[in-house]
């Protein structure tokens, strides 16, 4: 399943940045379908007793349902923007970054990483509400693999930026948010490996040496995940605000055709 998510993320990243309008529309429909499936999976957990097994004070089922609601909102947004996507003319994008826009390589790495992280967050939270079972082990293995893949992409993104610096962040808050996202992706990966060592969960089919205490490893990974979710939401919210409220169409166009 990890390989499937890698292919899905890369396919969506390529499609959304393709010069052909048909490819972009198909990728946008694919992104909507993937989010709808995620929301549907969470909805099923409400009816099959998965969430009913949790204590009344457990907020994790509520958080997953909030994620499902946000996913459905984004689905409607993506579908509603399909006519505009079809009509829109795009410019040629060079492979490497320029001072005023990101290159094709950076865009593909950015969106592939974004899709992987969007998948890792709900999967990881879903693992924590499942009772010990082979199904939980499968979800944990996918979560670990996807998180490690995002960590590897982070280093590729940094190398690309080193080779060809892209546009500067528009303000201090944006620079701080980007730095926080980079640091949290790396920290979450390291804490995830520590948690896998503590629980014995496989990472890409391999079992790490055990010896890390479970309670601190779990607490650290949960706190880092919460901080990353907040930073990710702030990043996405700022882009949406600039694009729709301030009508700054150039901000998102620097990273998306």
Q: Roughly what fraction of the amino acids lie in strands?
A: under 5%
Shape: globular
Which structural category do the helix and sheet elements fall into?
mainly alpha
Strand tally, please? 0
Number of helices, counting only DSSP H or I runs of 4 residues or more: 9
Tell me the name of the CATH class of the domain at 113-253: Mainly Alpha
> Average pLDDT across residues?
90
How are helices and strands ordered from N to C?
HHHHHHHHH
What can you see in these coordinates?
The protein is mainly α and 257 residues long. It has a domain at 113-253: Fumarate Reductase Cytochrome B subunit (Up-down Bundle), CATH 1.20.950. Helix content is 74%, strand content 0%. The chain has helices at 2-16, 21-47, 60-80, 82-87, 104-129, 134-163, 172-199, 214-245, 249-253. It starts with a helix and ends with a helix. The mean pLDDT is 90.
Supply the key terms.
257 residues; mainly alpha; Fumarate Reductase Cytochrome B subunit
Give a brief description.
This protein is an all-alpha fold and about 260 residues long. Helices cover about 75% and strands about 0% of the residues.
Write the layout of secondary structure elements.
Layout: H1 2-16, H2 21-47, H3 60-80, H4 82-87, H5 104-129, H6 134-163, H7 172-199, H8 214-245, H9 249-253
Helix pairs in contact: 1-2, 1-5, 2-3, 3-5, 5-6, 6-7, 7-8
């Amino acid at each position: 399943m990890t390989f499937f998510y890698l292919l899905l993320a890369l396919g969506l990243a390529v499609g959304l940045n393709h010069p052909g309008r048909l490819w972009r529309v198909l990728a946008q429909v694919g992104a909507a379908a993937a989010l709808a499936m995620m929301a549907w999976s969470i909805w099923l957990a409400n009816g099959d007793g998965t969430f009913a097994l949790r204590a009344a004070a457990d907020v994790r089922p509520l958080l997953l349902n909030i994620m499902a609601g946000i996913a459905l909102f984004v689905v409607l947004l993506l579908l509603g923007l399909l006519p505009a996507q079809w009509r829109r003319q795009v410019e040629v994008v060079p492979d490497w970054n320029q001072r005023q826009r990101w290159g094709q390589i950076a865009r593909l790495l950015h969106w592939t990483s974004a899709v992987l992280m969007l998948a890792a967050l709900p999967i990881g939270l879903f693992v924590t509400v499942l009772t010990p079972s082979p199904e939980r082990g499968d979800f944990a293995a996918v979560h670990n693999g996807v998180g490690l893949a995002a960590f590897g992409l982070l280093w590729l993104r940094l190398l690309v930026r080193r080779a060809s610096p892209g546009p500067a962040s528009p303000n201090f808050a944006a620079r701080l948010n980007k730095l926080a996202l980079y640091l949290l992706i790396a920290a979450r990966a390291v804490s995830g490996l520590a948690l896998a060592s503590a629980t014995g969960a496989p990472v890409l089919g391999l079992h790490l040496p055990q010896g890390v205490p479970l309670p601190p490893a779990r607490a650290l990974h949960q706190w880092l995940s919460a901080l990353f979710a907040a930073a990710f939401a702030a990043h996405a919210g700022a882009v949406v605000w600039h694009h729709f409220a301030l009508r700054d169409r150039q901000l998102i166009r620097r990273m998306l055709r």
